[in-house]
Write a structure and sequence with these properties.
This protein is of the alpha/beta class and 293 residues long. The protein has eleven helices and eight strands. An eight-stranded parallel sheet has the order 1-4-3-2-7-5-8-6, sandwiched between helices.
Length: 293
């Protein structure tokens, strides 16, 4: 679940006419090397057990509550955003509504965020960068997502979209909207119903409204706050635990080393084993694969 770039590509030039407040706002992915190393050392269940002891019960409860309300079936795609405040606000809306993934298309504009606005929320998002809309949308379609383009005045209202179908919502540049290529690749165009004299809203507001309405409808249709299966949820918990700690890999490694020095449980006690590290140790000493313990 690390941040991804679908292919190496030269980012569009920033130019020389950007406002001063745009300087230093190009989005850079938070480091995930320690998290990946921690997850490579043991099964997610063992990583959870090892790191929970360091995090403490209150922090564990908070991380679990957030993980247990994540939605993998709703994705936001941002194309050529210009203003870093809009980029930051869009990410913050996505994370606060429990969305896991955001994709950004940087064909014309580098993706920029205001860190005062994001408040570090991108730490908890999986953000994938693309150069071309065709690449991004083809990958999402292969994964089973329906593609919906946000277009003011479109005939289909947001509330009419199927909440049970995995959905990717495309939001375009503040001035030009979505590119013709992106619109043509989508299954439907939708609009947020507006009832005042103003017939459009700011990009970040449109993102917030879209995520709130559709995630609320999806949770109601599912009858639960999360759409992850149990293995995916356990892996996400392990990743969040690792992401929340410094040197998570070192903590997991020391936990595994301590397990090898603990006395082997008596066979009579196997029915009462609850420590996953003991189970893994027992399998190792018996010469069994992990799955056979």
């Amino acid at each position: 679940m690390s941040h991804k770039v679908t292919q190496k590509f030269p980012l569009p030039s920033s130019g020389t006419s950007l406002p001063e407040r745009y300087l230093g706002t190009e989005w850079l992915p938070p480091p995930r090397q320690d998290e990946e190393e921690a997850l490579s050392l043991a099964r997610p269940e063992v990583v959870v057990e090892a790191l929970a002891r360091v995090l403490g019960p209150e922090r564990v409860a908070r991380l679990d509550a957030v993980a247990s309300a994540r939605l993998s079936g709703v994705i936001i795609v941002l194309e050529n955003l210009h203003d870093p405040h809009n980029g930051g606000a869009a990410l913050r809306s996505c994370e606060s509504m429990g969305i896991m993934e955001v994709h950004v298309i940087e064909g014309k504009e580098r993706f920029r965020v205001s860190r005062k606005v994001t408040q570090g929320c991108d730490k908890w998002l999986e953000i994938t960068r693309h150069q071309r809309p065709e690449t991004c949308l083809s990958l999402l379609r292969q994964r089973g997502f329906r593609l919906y383009a946000a277009v003011p005045g479109a005939a289909m209202p947001l509330e009419a979209l199927d909440p049970l179908q995995p959905a990717a919502f495309l939001v375009g540049n503040e001035h030009e909207g979505l590119s013709a290529t992106a619109r043509a690749a989508c299954d439907r165009e939708f609009a947020i119903p507006l009832h005042g004299f103003s017939q459009s809203v700011n990009l970040s507001v449109a993102t917030a409204l879209t995520t709130y309405v559709h995630t609320s409808r999806r949770r109601q249709a599912l009858g639960r706050p999360c759409d992850l299966d149990e293995p995916s949820l356990i892996e996400l918990r392990a990743r969040y635990y690792a992401r929340d700690l410094r040197n998570a890999a070192g903590i997991v490694r020391r936990f595994l080393q301590s397990a090898t020095t603990r006395p082997l449980p008596e066979l009579a006690d196997l029915a009462e084993l609850s420590d996953l590290a003991d189970l893994a140790l027992l399998a190792e000493r018996a010469g069994l694969p992990d799955g056979d313990a």
